[in-house]
Sequence to fold (413 residues):
Amino acid sequence: MSLIVQKFGGTSVGDISRIQNVARKVKAELDKKNQVIVVVSAMSGVTNQLVAYCNQVSSLMTKESLAEYDSVVATGEQVTCGLLALELQSIGYKARSLLGWQIPLKTDDVYSKARIDSIDGDFLRAQLKEYDVVVIAGFQGIYAETNRVATLGRGGSDTSAVAIAAAVGADLCDIYTDVDGVYTTDPRITSKARKLNKVTYEEMLEMAYSGSKVLQTRSVAMAMSHNVRVRVLSSFLEVSENSGTILVNNDEEIMERRVITGISYSKNDVQIALTQMPDHPGLSATIFGALAEKEVNVDMIVQNISADGKSVDITFTIAKDELERAKLAIESIKDIVKYKEMVVDENIAKISVIGVGMISHSGVAHTMFKTLADKGINLLLISTSEIKISVLIAKDYGELAVRVLHDAYGLDK
Ligand code: ADP
Ligand code: ASP
Ligand code: MG
Fold:
């Protein structure tokens, strides 16, 4: 008997017939005498609609407003966990739904992208003695000090599932979605994308972080640090031995070693340039301190010093939905850092090539830059880690860049 956490994303619970399909997937595990905890997302499109409602009535700049945003956007998951529990009851199981606060799944108070502090795993294990199956609303928890609902950031149900798997010591966390695994790149961009049978946690972390939203970045980080076995599967296909993609610890588990594992694409970033600031020690600390204070995450950073060494331009990227907060933060230090202009460019895409094989192979960056140059694509920013190279380019070239790089690294083979 194994203890399994099954997570179903928005498309998988998109209507009643799909919820009935999910119940069959749950039944398949129960038939094998496994214990099952289910985590669900909201029906596809619902969270977007709820976010849009909030944006219509508020600019969501204050903590107080973000707390209310969370109480609105968390509702999508309440519907689906209740409906799935009802369907499981209809087919003969003793099932119940659980909301974040009922577990409790405790978070910090960074509303709209809260982090999980703790989960009562003993309570969940006790519930499994009382019920055949429990269905948990993903994406949500509670900030205990104020008793307020907090959500875990877009795509956060993945993180709920992995965290719950860690808290109960599950043998496996199966993430069911609308693709049958992790691909070399988003299969919506090129039909040449190939499914990966295995991918290392490290690579998946970089892929998720740089835009492959098949898993939320935090879910991968959590799986890595808590040693949770994660598999990505389609909820629309039968599960067999070779189904899906499994996250593995290191490349030793991967027989056929490739230099590049995957290519990620993100349209979610904004570039901000602060120009002609008088150079002095502490300039960067002031800028990035102000951004951190407003909970803005910074990704790529480049600093250029003028030929005479007197002034600097600093360019960085952030997530699009944090732009308004970032602008406020920057404007608040205008008198200290004395930038001439703040130039915002939303017309950009970030393309990243990822692979642990990069550590032991040279020429990976050259292939990337040459391939893009041959198509006349200009690079605005470049950043690297030991297993990733990211470039910022004009948004119009984003999908083309992914396709030519996919060919250049032979990922279709
Ligand atoms: P869910 O609602 O099930 O959480 P998401 O929409 O969040 O599903 O994630 C699944 C989607 O991720 C796929 O439909 C696919 O378009 C996209 N995706 C992006 N990059 C990849 C990749 N490398 N492999 C597989 N899917 C990817
Ligand atoms: N429903 C939430 C979202 O759309 C969480 C999730 O699906 O993982 O972001
Ligand atoms: Mg998702």
The chain is about 35% helix and 25% strand. The chain has a mean pLDDT of 96.
